[in-house]
Each structure stands twice: as C-alpha cells, then as structure tokens.
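Issue 218. Parser rejects a valid record. Input:
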Amino acid sequence: MGPVQHLVAGDGQLFACSTDRSIRQFDLEKRSVIRSFVGHQDWIFAADYHAGTKRLATAGLDGQVRIWQTETKDEKQPSLLEFIAAPGYTTETSGSGN
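Output the parser choked on:
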C-alpha cells in the first residue's frame, strides 16, 4: 500500500485511499483488511461512504469517479459505476496534434 491520500470512516469500517491507485477497506473492530478495490489509473484523492447503501464513491487524478459496492463477496468485482468527471478530460489520445 502506498502513502494514504484520504481516509473515510463509517459503519465500523475505514477506507484508505492511496497513491498506489487502490482503496483498502478495513474492519475497525477486528483491525483487519476486508478487501481492496482497484480500477483507478492515478492517485485517489477523495472518497465518501454511504452506510445506507453500503457504497463508496471515489475520485482520482485520472478524472474518474467510481461507485463501489462494499459488501460484495467477489474480490474481483469492478466498480458498479464509473464516469469521467473532469471537463475536457479524455482517456483517448489523438494523433492529429490538436
């Protein structure tokens, strides 16, 4: 795990967003890692957790916002929703030179 950029706590859990482009979910009572979430292409700098839906929203320097289901049993489950939130940002490159 890289340096932590952002922490979010709620519902007996802690979410640590780091510069290695991952989020770790911890059980505060057991003091153990529950799972890791990966998918961002750059540092994750913001997060918020909603206890009612058990979902985590994250934002990265890659311009992406992702919504994650935090109670899944599937360790490889991708985010539920992802979108580019930075105006003018694109993940594609153009060979036109413009």
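Fixed in the parser; the record now loads. Confidence is low (pLDDT under 50) at residues 93-98.
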